[in-house]
């Protein structure tokens, strides 16, 4: 008898992993004698950033966290922003401080980030916490890459011994992603805008994390049937719909597993932000 083997592509739904993490956070928050507090600062009126900040504040309320939403005008000076961060550093009620990026061009991002008290650095961007991450001595890790690791674990996708390719080397996604994958036992290649022949890397990898910030940059020909593809990119098309850095319709029935856009990486980023804020609050308040 002839057996027909069907190729099934697994959808990696960040929402499922995020919901699981929220249950754990809610359980832990109930056992605390305080409400963890997250402060989010937004400078300017970028519509996408406004949406992201709104979602974070809403999630704080749902989880029983306190929150501070600090909206500053586009022409805020660097000195005024530093003063605002300093006051949050000194505020004993605030556990985590998130400065929504990107900042307006006249503000030096690294100066602002370094001003955040490392004990309140919820996205692990200060050099102190980034150093701990590099030495594998971290208690929390940047939200998007650590969310991806959890999502892979939740779907029983093995990283140890696998070849992983990360596209993009930003401080917030690509670079920490490469460290976390390496710490999980993968052999990691980090590609960027100067990499020759990206396809030669992605095509042979077991796991590909795409974070280039270019709509539908990669497609079916960049992967193979057993590829696990994580699409970090998020872009709004002219018709209002969302797309990622990968041409999802080409891979959705082809690769072994992929994260959709939306409902893939995005929900995990917010969940890890809440998780990190809870961890920072415990480290600072529970002796
Ligand atoms: P970013 O700071 O703009 O970094 C993009 C990276 O991609 C850079 O390292 C750049 O290389 C590389 N790159 C650009 N063009 C390339 C090319 N043609 N070939 C190979 N590499 C190229 O972006 P990011 O902050 O990491 O974000 C990446 C994407 O993820 C964006 O779409 C962003 O909106 C999305 N994102 C989503 C979430 C989420 O929760 N879903 C969270 C964060 C970010 P160089 O370093 O050489 O310039």
Which key terms come to mind for this protein?
binds NADP nicotinamide-adenine-dinucleotide phosphate, alpha/beta, three-stranded parallel sheet, 287 residues, six-stranded parallel sheet, 11 strands, 10 helices, Rossmann fold
What's this entry about, in short?
The protein has 287 residues and is α/β, with parallel strands linked by helices. Helix content is 40%, strand content 15%.
- The average pLDDT value, as a whole number, equals 96
By secondary-structure content and strand pairing, the structural class works out as alpha/beta
**Percentage of residues in DSSP E strands:** 15-25%
User: How many domains would you count in the coordinates?
Assistant: 2
- Give the CATH level 1 class of the largest domain: Alpha Beta
Portion in helices: 25-40%
Which molecules other than protein and nucleic acid are bound? NADP nicotinamide-adenine-dinucleotide phosphate
* CATH fold assignment of the largest domain: Rossmann fold
Radius of gyration of CA atoms, rounded to a whole number: 20 Å
Choose one word for the global shape: globular
Would you identify the regions where 5 or more consecutive residues have pLDDT less than 50? Answer: none
Q: What's the multimeric state? A: single chain
The CATH architecture name of the largest domain reads 3-Layer(aba) Sandwich
For the biggest sheet, the summary is: 6 strands, parallel
Going by CATH, the homologous superfamily of the largest domain would be NAD(P)-binding Rossmann-like Domain
Number of strands: 11
């Amino acid at each position: 008898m002839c057996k027909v083997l069907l190729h099934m592509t697994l959808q990696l739904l960040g929402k499922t992993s995020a919901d699981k993490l929220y249950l754990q956070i809610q359980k832990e928050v109930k056992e605390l004698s305080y409400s963890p507090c997250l402060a989010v600062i937004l400078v300017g009126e970028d519509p996408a950033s406004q949406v992201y900040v709104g979602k974070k504040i809403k999630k704080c309320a749902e989880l029983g966290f306190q929150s501070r939403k600090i909206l500053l005008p586009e022409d805020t000076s660097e000195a005024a922003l530093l003063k605002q961060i300093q006051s949050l550093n000194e505020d004993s009620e605030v556990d985590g401080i998130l400065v929504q990026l990107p900042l307006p061009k006249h503000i030096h991002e690294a100066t602002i980030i370094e001003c955040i008290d490392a004990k309140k650095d919820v996205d692990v961007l200060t050099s102190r916490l980034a150093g701990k991450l590099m030495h594998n001595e971290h208690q929390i890790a940047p939200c998007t890459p650590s969310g991806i690791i959890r999502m892979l674990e939740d779907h029983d996708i093995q990283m140890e011994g696998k070849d992983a390719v990360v596209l993009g080397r930003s401080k917030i996604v690509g670079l920490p992603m490469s460290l976390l994958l390496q710490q999980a036992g993968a052999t990691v290649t980090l590609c960027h805008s100067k990499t020759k022949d990206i396809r030669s890397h992605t095509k042979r990898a077991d796991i590909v994390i795409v974070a280039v910030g270019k709509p539908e940059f990669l497609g079916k020909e960049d992967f193979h049937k057993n590829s696990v593809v994580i699409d970090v990119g998020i872009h709004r098309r002219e018709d209002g719909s969302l797309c990622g850095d990968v041409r999802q319709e080409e891979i959705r029935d082809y690769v072994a597993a992929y994260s959709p856009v939306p409902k893939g990486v995005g929900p995990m980023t917010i969940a890890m932000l809440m998780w990190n804020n809870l961890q920072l609050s415990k480290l600072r308040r529970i002796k």
